[in-house]
Amino acid sequence: MGEAACKIDVILGHIIEDHEAKHESAIDDENKTRAREDLVDVFLNLQKTSDLKFVVTMDVMKNVIIEIFLAGTDSSSTTIDWAMSEILQNPRVMQKAQQEETLRLHPPGQLMAREAREKCKVMGYEIPAKAMIIINNWGVGWNPAYWPNPGRIPTGEEIGDGTKSPQELDIEEAYGITTRRKNPLTVIAKTRIKFSD
Predict the structure, then answer these.
(1) Where the protein is mainly located, per its record (predicted)?
(2) Quick check: helix, strand or coil at residue 71?
(3) If you count Cβ atoms within 10 Å of the first and of the last residue's Cβ in the chain, which end, N or C, has fewer?
(4) Is 72 exposed, middle or buried (0-12, 13-18, 19+ CB in 10 A)?
């Protein structure tokens, strides 16, 4: 992980320096048509013109860019990984898993922030309008009051399609910003068709 982080840091550094050079070139040649701006250009403009209470350094730019990429890729790949684990345990309930169960059992983000649109009352608590609410995704999906056996997807037998007992898989979780599998999912496909020699 440390080596990968160093490589990403170097790559982002080159990208930012390239944008800085383009900015300097555009200042020197005012008649030159400016290219479409991207996120790095926005940061560089903020660096020069903003009255923010903090300095937009190269490290700040790198961190925000990495966060955006992680938010867009890590949560998706984590969800797909867990979906495959659950489907392998219960191949007959693929449709149900696709609809709801993967995100219920293994939400990629444990907590989710939302703002209340209006004043309301929830479980006896007064929630004012515009209040920031933190939702425990994991707690909702694993609440035994709503899910009779919250730790697993119902087998096909329980929903009436005659599936046998699910195959045991390692579904231990590793906790962090996103909740990944502790051990990578390794699937070995077996040939079902006999090939002639």
Answers:
(1) membrane
(2) helix
(3) C
(4) exposed
